[in-house]
Amino acid sequence: MKVELAGLELHGYHGVNEGEQRDGQRFLYDVSLEVGERGSSDRIEDAVDYRDVARLVAEVNERRYDLLEALATAVADALVARFQPLAVTVRVRKPDVRPAGFLVEHSAVTVERP
Questions:
Q1: Pairwise CA distance, residues 96 & 90, whole Å
Q2: CATH number for 9
C-alpha cells in the first residue's frame, strides 16, 4: 500500500540566485510512501495520515536550501525518520524556473529511499 501526495504546492526560498532567495517561488512536491498494510484496519491511528505527511513536508520547506537535491534529500530523510516507511520517493519541482533564460515546464529532482 502507498500513501501519495501529488502536486503539494508550497512557497519556498530555495535556490542559488539572489532573486530566488529574496522573493522565493513555488515548489511542487510529489511524495510516495510505501507503508505495507498500515491503514488496512480502517483506523486512522494505524495509518500514515497524509495530512501529517503534508505538514512534515511544509516544515522542511520552511528551511532554506541552495540546491533542489539537498531539499529533496531533507524531505525524504524527514519522512523516513517520522513514518518509517518501507520506501519513500520524493520529487521536488520548480515550475517557475528559467534556466539561462529558456522557458521550461519545470526543473525537478527525485530522491528515493529503500
A1: 19
A2: 3.30.1130.10
